[in-house]
């Protein structure tokens, strides 16, 4: 059974895509998006994972707070609808506490009761030094509000026109069976969502500097890392350093040329990789 719903997570309306087996089980595979953190992008990936699991675990994709169009304002009546990087961490922990407390086994997030964590194209350190970081940091610093205002103007373009433009340009290489989810995520974007996405990116550039080696060292036996061979959001030296530090553990380098935004082109293939790490 699959459903898309909006849950109240720590007083934040949150877009969640869930796949649940017909018979109750005690395992949950939680998919935490990158940035942009709109769960729509991950629906084909999550669906394939659920198929491969054959009912052995439920799957949930939890969008980032304030990233899904139309779901920014808090449900408790508070005035804040901007969410910082640390807010996103607290948001996912609140989801686990409020909506997954009955599960005995968790995948992809790292509290004590987690069985496995799989990092796909991880951005754990020195993001501002990456190729994209150097290119885009000035934009994040100086053009955040102008870009948000420009997007507000774009929303006046009829939705049908936006859908057609996206299908013909940005998503040309996306498999046809994934298109509807991708277009839905982007065509309906609003200015508040864009501000949260860009502001989170700016904070990632500033705050994601040194890798959390202590945390990784304590839990590396539960972790798998999958780095991109030409990932413009991660330095190649990050993979080499991690592979040297933890040479006896599962640190992999992609040899198939999958992009950082793997959900655009390789959801099926990456779901197969993740499932192989859960067995």
Could you explain the architecture of this structure?
The chain is of the alpha/beta class. The protein has helices spanning 43-53, 85-99, 131-142, 144-154, 159-168, 179-187, 191-207, 213-219, 236-245, 267-278, and strands spanning 2-9, 12-19, 27-31, 58-62, 105-107, 114-120, 223-227, 250-253. It has an eight-stranded mixed beta sheet with strand order 1-2-4-3-5-6-7-8, with helices on both faces. Strand 3 (27-31), helix 1 and strand 4 (58-62) form a beta-alpha-beta unit. The protein starts with a strand and ends with a helix. The model has no long low-confidence stretch (mean pLDDT 83).
In summary, what is this structure?
The chain has 10 helices and 8 strands.
Strand order of the largest sheet: 1-2-4-3-5-6-7-8
Taken from the alpha-carbon principal axes, the silhouette is: globular
The share of residues in extended strands comes to 15-25%
Percent helix among the residues? 40-55%
Describe the largest sheet: 8 strands, mixed
Instruction: Tell me, rounded to a whole number, the average pLDDT.
Output: 83
**Radius of gyration using CA atoms only:** 18 Å
Distance between the termini: 23 Å
Uncertain residue ranges = none
Count every helix, treating DSSP H or I runs of 4 or more residues as helices: 10
Structural class: alpha/beta
């Amino acid at each position: 059974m699959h459903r898309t719903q909006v849950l109240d997570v720590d007083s934040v309306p949150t877009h969640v895509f869930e796949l649940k087996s017909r018979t109750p089980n005690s395992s949950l595979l939680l998919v935490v998006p990158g940035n942009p953190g709109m769960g729509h992008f991950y629906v084909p990936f999550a669906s394939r994972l659920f198929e491969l699991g054959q009912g052995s675990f439920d799957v949930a994709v939890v969008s980032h707070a304030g990233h899904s169009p139309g779901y920014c304002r808090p449900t408790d009546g508070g005035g804040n609808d901007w969410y910082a990087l640390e807010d996103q961490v607290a948001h996912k922990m609140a989801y686990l506490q409020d909506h997954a407390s009955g599960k005995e086994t968790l995948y992809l997030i790292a509290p004590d009761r987690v069985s496995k964590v799989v990092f796909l194209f991880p951005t754990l350190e020195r993001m501002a030094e990456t190729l994209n970081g150097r290119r885009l940091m000035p934009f994040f610093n100086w053009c955040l509000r102008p870009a948000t205002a420009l997007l507000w103007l774009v929303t006046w373009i009829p939705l049908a026109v936006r859908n057609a433009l996206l299908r013909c340009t940005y998503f040309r290489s996306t498999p046809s069976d994934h298109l509807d989810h991708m277009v839905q995520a982007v065509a309906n974007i609003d200015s508040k969502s864009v501000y949260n996405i860009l502001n989170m990116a700016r904070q990632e550039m500033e705050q994601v500097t040194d890798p959390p080696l202590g945390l990784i060292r304590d839990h590396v036996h539960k972790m798998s890392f999958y780095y991109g061979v030409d990932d413009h959001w991660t330095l190649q030296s990050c993979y080499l350093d991690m592979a040297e530090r933890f040479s006896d553990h599962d640190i992999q380098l992609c040899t198939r040329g999958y992009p950082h935004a793997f959900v655009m082109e390789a959801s099926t293939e990456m779901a197969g990789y993740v499932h192989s790490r859960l067995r």
